[in-house]
Structures are given as C-alpha cells and as structure tokens.
Amino acid sequence: MGIFFERPAEDDRTATAGWYNSAAFEKEAQAAGLYARSFNGDAYSDAMKAEVIAAIKADLGQVDCVIYSLASPRRTDPKTGDVYKSVLKPIGEKYTNKNLNTTTGVVNEISIEPAQGDDIEQTIAVMGGADWELWMDALQEAGVLAEGVTTVSYSYIGPEVTWPIYKNGTIGRAKEDLENVQRALDAKLAPLKGKAWVSVNKALVTQASSAIPVVPLYISLLYKVMKADGTHEDTIEQMDRLFRERLCNGNPQPDEAGRIRVDDWEMTPAVQQLVGERWAQVNTENLAEFGDFAGYQASFLRLFGFGLEGVDYAADTNPMVKVPSIA
C-alpha cells in the first residue's frame, strides 16, 4: 500500500511524475500477480489513516512492515487544525558556503540567515516524528499490526560541510525528534514483539534533496568519488541493501545511537577525505573534473521520466493515465 499526495492529469496539464510512477508500479505488480493499492491525499490527516486502516482490514488483515517517509513543506495537525511550516535554516548564525546552481551548472556562494522565532518548533512539527507516532498509534489501536511488525523511518546525517544547514540546523532538530519517537515506538510495539528503526541513508538525488542548499554540489562530488570507487548506489539499490542485508535477515547492525546506517559507504574516511579535498578546490570551471554534475542532472531528470533510453519523447501519448486502484 502506498500513501501519497499527487495530482492526476487534467484537460490542460499532465499529472505529476509521482502519479505516473504509481500507475506504472501498480501495472507491473498486477502483471507479476502481486498486491498493490494506492491512496492519494493528505497523509497527515485522520481521514487518510482511517481509510488505510479500513483497506488493510478488508484486503490484508494485518501488515508486518510500515515505512514512514514524508517530505513536505507544511503539515496540518489533525487534532488541533494548526498549520505548521518547515524551514531549512541554520541555528544561531548565518551560514555561507559554496552552492551549485543545478540549472546552469554554476558553482556560486549562498548565504542563509539563521532561524528566528518559532522556526525550529515549526520544522519539528512538520519533519519530526509526531505524525509517524500518530500513524503507528492508529494502526496499533485498530489491531492491524502483525506480531513482529517492523517500522522504519528514513533520515540523513551527511558530512560536516552540510551540518550547519542540515544536522545542526532546523531540519537536524526535526531528525532528533524522529529518533526520540523511534525509542517511544519501541516501547509501544513491545507487546507485539515489534521494532521501530531510523535508517540513516546515503545522499541521493530526490525532489527533497535538490531543494536543500549546498547538498547538490556535495552530491555531485560524492557521486564522482563513489562511482570511481565502485560503491555508488541509487535509491533502489540502497533500499534493496537496507531490506535484504539489514531489516530482513536479523542483522540490522545498529550504530551506537541505535540507528541503521546505510550511509556507511558514503561516510568511509577515504571517501569523505577525497570529497573534502575536492570541495575546497571546486569551482565552475573544474566542476566536470571534480564532480559528476552530468550524473546528477541525469538522476534528477529520471525522477520525472526524462532521459531514459528506449523512450521516444517525440511520440504522441495520452497523459490521462489512471492509477488502477484509485480510478
């Protein structure tokens, strides 16, 4: 089951990429004889939780794995109606560092003013663990979690060069809240012999990461190093490793804080040293030498269905595609 917020096609515009991805996923699942069902709407709402719970009871009875991975600029609290807005800001002082214009390929400099007022609290309310806990509470109270259930929420830490805007910034405070909720969920799931995990993942090209200043330049440098090293993974390869080698074989290999680390290949000292050296030297003129900006751009375009071999982009197509389980 997948819960998301995407826009279907209308007469004068195409659907969002996520809508087409979900339609294609369901088609392939059905062809393979596998169950797949999608829900399009506000995943933060009580109404969506109730709809999904009813579907689990009707179709599956119980579930044994819940993946929580939401990235949103805002969240409406279903209990109070309050609307919270997240911000990507440093805490305490202005942050200035190199940045990559992903449209032009220009390496420039960016300065970000520090958080003010209730920026931290607002970001925690959106990107912290509150909604993850609400989902798990609702599923558990409804009796649709199987014995031995696993739930995992995705996170990121990254290298020191990004810490002022990420780990030590407003989003970092939200990730700390996520880890606090993980420990609370462990206690709540104990009667089911269940387990909650936070998985710290590798830097990946996503719609969310592309919006974080500094990160696209870091990813471009990182990919150059990891591809040469033979350790580069895209999203699907990393998730395969997470489930096959950590979550599903009884060998999660948690770190000292109890987190699963599939950013381990990214954070090896040799990789980080070389990326750090290139960070100090990189500019617009030598970006192609030190970084894999072409690879970054190709990965970003693939998120939206472009740049794929074997596709005739000049051919006529019907954008009015339905997601079978929603139609």
Strand content: 5-15%
Q: CATH topology, what is it called?
A: Rossmann fold
Distance N to C terminus: 15 Å
Helices and strands, in N-to-C order? EHEHEEEEEHHEHEHHEHHH
Spans of 5+ residues with little confidence (pLDDT < 50)?
A: none
CATH superfamily: NAD(P)-binding Rossmann-like Domain
Number of helices: 10
What would CATH call the class? Alpha Beta
Largest sheet, strands/sense/barrel:
4 strands, parallel
Oligomeric status: single chain
Strand order, largest beta sheet: 3-8-9-10
Mean pLDDT: 95
Cα gyration radius (Å): 21 Å
The general outline is globular
Brief rundown of the structure:
The chain has 327 residues and is α/β, with parallel strands linked by helices. Helices cover 39% and strands 15% of the residues.
Structural features:
Rossmann fold; alpha/beta; globular; 10 helices; 327 residues; four-stranded parallel beta sheet
Write the layout of secondary structure elements.
Elements: E1 2-4, H1 17-31, E2 38-40, H2 46-59, E3 63-68, E4 74-76, E5 83-85, E6 95-100, E7 107-112, H3 119-127, H4 130-141, E8 145-155, H5 170-189, E9 195-200, H6 215-229, H7 235-247, E10 260-261, H8 269-281, H9 287-290, H10 293-303
Parallel strand pairs: 1-2, 3-8, 8-9, 9-10
Antiparallel strand pairs: 4-5, 6-7
Q: How is this structure best described in words?
A:
With 327 residues, the chain is of the alpha/beta class. The chain has a single domain, classed as Rossmann fold (3-Layer(aba) Sandwich), CATH 3.40.50.720. It is built from ten helices and ten strands. Strands 3-8-9-10 form a four-stranded parallel beta sheet, with helices on both faces. Strands 1-2 form a two-stranded parallel sheet. A two-stranded antiparallel sheet has the order 4-5. Helix 4 runs parallel beside helix 5 (170-189) and helix 6 crosses helix 10 (293-303). The protein is globular and about 60 Å long.
